[in-house]
Amino acid sequence: MYNQLAISSSSSSSSSSYYESLKILEADVQHANTLAEAIPMGKNNVRLQMKLVHSNFASLLLILLRWIDLSCSCLVPRYFNLFHVLVYKVHSDGQPKLTTHGRKATISEFYGVILPSLQLLHSNLDELENADIGFDLKRLSKKITKEARSNRFSNAGLEREEECGICLETCTKMVLPNCCHSMCIKCYRNWNLKSQSCPFCRGSMKRVNSEDLWVLAGDNDVVDTRTASKEDLFRFYLYINSLPKDYPEALFLVYYEYSNLI
To answer: Where is the secretion signal located (predicted)?
Structure first.
């Protein structure tokens, strides 16, 4: 029971820029649906879909615009406060999942987060084809919490390994190419100015410049593309789940269909 937009092709009135802006917005929403359809479904066989809906005040605004003879291009950003994008779940057969409410995203949230995230996920489809990912966000949250607890003790040991052997600060360590000893960049610069020799083996550092140093990468610094793609999809689902729920408005206002006013 939502007021779905229907944009008319005739835009010869003073509100032509209003219609054109809504046409572009609807086209972007349909493009987002195309990107969402390409994402592999999880075990529950549901995927996300979106549609552009408007507040009941948008119908009254359209009536007002039909009586105002002025260019509304400067007022278009204000109109978008009356519109939002409804994000909802559909089954594999295209039927909406009626057991849950949709999520309400503002126009800025759609262009700032949802559409760029779908474009990023679409570029990594090969890595997501065999990923076991669904919309069970409760199971996902439990999995993340369990992994965080299991990594709590291992991270303590990793921090000790990532400490600089000179200043004992946790940081990214640089490796000397001649002797393979490591230290932070600050200690390297200080020690190079003092003695131009390695503090561990006293090897010469006279011909070693800062651009010759190697960066010591840790386990957390290297992530394969499949894992990164799954994490991107996890974060996208969690963001959608954090959006406010969208409830239908009063029935006596729903009958002001936008298409009947054009």
So the answer is: none
